Amino acid sequence: MTEEEKDLILGYLDDRLSVSQFDSLQTLLRENKDARSFLIDLSTIDTKLDDFSLSVDQETSAPQTIPFSWRKYTWPVVACLLVLFLCTSGYFLFSEPKIATIQSCEDAAWESDLPTTPGSELTSGILKLRRGLASIELRSGVSFVLEGPAEVELISAMKTLLASGMVMVEVPERAIGFVLETPDGYAIDYGTRFAVAVDPIKSVSSFEVIDGEIGVHHPVSGSEVRLVDNQTISIEKGIVSSLKEGEGEKKIPARGEIKRVFAGRNSTSIIRNDQRDVYLSNDVLLVKSTDILPSFDRRALLEFDLSVVDPSEYNKVRLSLNLVPANGLRSHLPEENIFAVYGIKESWESGLLWSEAPQIEEAEKLGTFSIPRSKQFGNYGIETDALKKFLQSGHSKLLIVRETFETRGSGMIHAFANYNHPHFAPPVLEFY
After folding, report:
1. Which of 10, 20, 28, 197 could lock onto 166 through a cystine, CB 3.0 to 4.6 A?
2. What's the chain's average pLDDT?
3. pTM reported for the whole predicted model
4. How far is 387 from 364, CA to CA, in rounded Å?
């Protein structure tokens, strides 16, 4: 503090400040922590001296009228000023700092407590990008493009954690030292553009330098590997792979061969009242269960041509369904809606009636999945050993049933894209 600033505080305690000087004191107290501490210390001493002087006067002299003085009220006034300061500036003192900004989004679908519209300023927290692309810039100048599905945690302007998915990072010179963490290791940037992909299921984190240099650290062994232009490395289940160069478009990520078989044109829906022309459509597979108006129950039947694939050659298989919007009130459904997938052996013809359709009692339950009532889009399905064994046994037909019932009438019908949907792919079996 300067002598002039100290004189302002002393002048306040001695009641000799002008209006303009008092305004200057208020500004000083708002902006200078040392000034506030100095005023509190002097006020405490001044008040104690006043009390001591008053007690001596009362013991040594006759009672007399004590003139009114602001000095007796110094401490209460200071307290009020500090409360006013905290109220007017508390937002800046206690609010969580903004560390990033969403620059742009492309076909993005989010699940996050943080704001997700372009231009939003972000505090630390977790962002879950279910699909699409999102460009984010940290206050340090680091920018990255997140490719959904992905999950990233913003820790600070110089540190980010990629929990799953893929990200492309560009680091300016002023942000050298930026750290990108993964569940398996972390990268320290030395001025570069680099990409990272994380597969949490397989416990693999892959790092690739586009240009520049990064250091990839393995926390278990404490080792560091330096990567430069066009070099890649992976950490898989705690093991660091050898350094690789020039792998082109095969660099990140490597999921192995996937064979996809889409549902055929014989896939269809059935409705209990058999009014197919009124309540069913060929571009979607409809599923509904209700005990209020059971005649409007719907189920979906899927048929796949497995002549193009040998299921026994693959370790895993997944059934994927694309959810699309349909009629009905979502608020009339449970918060979580459970679906069951059954394996069936019977064939069917077009125009199938409810009574002629394969029944649950004669089917084999292969797995379940759930959909929150808030969702109108998304990819859902199962990946179970029971599904794999059923397909490996030579069967290729499935039945989809919603196990949960609507809570009130006119609840939403769940719809999944069928073979001729204009925008989304039909059900698919993925072998890998």
Report:
1. 197
2. 84
3. 0.48
4. 10
